[in-house]
Amino acid sequence: MRRLLIVGCGDVVRRALPQLLRHWRVFALVRRRDEQLAELGVLQIVGDLDRRATLHRIAGIADAVIHSAPPPSAGADDPRTARLLATLATGKSVPRSLVYIGTSGIYGDCGGAQVDETRPPAPRTDRARRRQAAETRLRAFGRSSGCRVALLRAPGIYAAERLPLERVRQRLPLLRAEEDSFTNHIHAEDLARALDAALRRGRPNRTYNVVDDSVLKMGDWFDRLADAFGLPRAPRLPPADVRTQLSPLQLSFMGESRRLDNRRMKRELGLRLRYPSVIEGLAAARAETERTA
């Protein structure tokens, strides 16, 4: 059976594991052993992307790699990806394919324009610059090694347990519609399915916007979230008033407006969305929340 190495086994990847385990012998690089992964049959290799000397056991071990480990929390580079790729390059064989979960934030502010994968990155924050640095390293690795690298650019990921309900309950203000920015979303289950599709059908050194079909401004997203969970909608205020009540991180998200084009994802990966809009996704999240309450 072909061997798959997972680097960064967070929520989205764990959602993909049932499907992946049907077709791959799965290994995971972990900082400490995880009983849940062991019960699923995932073979764990203890190592740390911040310590190159701990990574030697992953060299040459896998036919394919899923890389979803986050970069460091500061700086404009991603040395973790650099250490990973340097280690993979030392093996007797290199992976034939690699899928990376990045962010659509590398496009920066596009003034509400529709954005496909040909648009040059223009990150405005170090958080996005770190992701662009990772993509640049991954592309170079793909060219030099012959590994088929697919880069998934994901926007706001949501699911029943990944919703900003506390923000809604606090009724933090939103911008008025005429001043608001476009926002983009993907349900965690659909992003997990995109991982499997990219492993099978992703083209070499190819980027994919992994996003649903919704066309929403940020205020509309929070209104729909409030409505789905029976909560009061937040007030809409002028920009000057909003700036006094939100954190710099929240304001940075509100300052970037774009509408992601997902046609390449559908055409080349053949992904049919389980939750084509946030309407279906939020209805499912509400139902799941009620089942587990």
Element string (H = helix, E = strand): EHEHEEHEEHEEHEEEHEEHEHHEHH
- Oligomeric state of the chains? single chain
Helix content: 25-40%
Sheet with most strands = 7 strands, parallel
Strand content: 15-25%
What's the architecture of the domain at 3-158 and 185-211, going by CATH?
3-Layer(aba) Sandwich
Distance between the termini: 40 Å
Structure class: alpha/beta
Give the overall pLDDT as a whole number: 96
Number of strands: 15
Going across the major beta sheet, what is the strand order? 3-2-1-4-5-7-12
> Any idea of the CATH topology of the domain at 3-158 and 185-211?
Rossmann fold
What does this structure look like?
This protein is an alpha/beta fold and 293 residues long. It has a domain at 3-158 and 185-211: 3-Layer(aba) Sandwich (Rossmann fold), CATH 3.40.50.720. The protein has helices at 11-23, 35-40, 79-88, 126-145, 165-170, 188-201, 218-228, 239-243, 248-254, 263-269, 278-292; strands at 3-7, 25-30, 43-46, 64-67, 97-103, 114-115, 148-154, 156-158, 174-175, 182-183, 185-187, 206-209, 216-217, 236-237, 259-260.
Ordered list of secondary-structure elements with their pairings:
Layout lengths: L2 E5 L3 H13 L1 E6 L4 H6 L2 E4 L17 E4 L11 H10 L8 E7 L10 E2 L10 H20 L2 E7 L1 E3 L6 H6 L3 E2 L6 E2 L1 E3 H14 L4 E4 L6 E2 H11 L7 E2 L1 H5 L4 H7 L4 E2 L2 H7 L8 H15 L1
Parallel strand pairs: 1-2, 1-4, 2-3, 4-5, 5-7, 6-15, 7-12, 8-11, 9-14
Antiparallel strand pairs: 10-13
Helix pairs in contact: 1-6, 3-4, 7-11
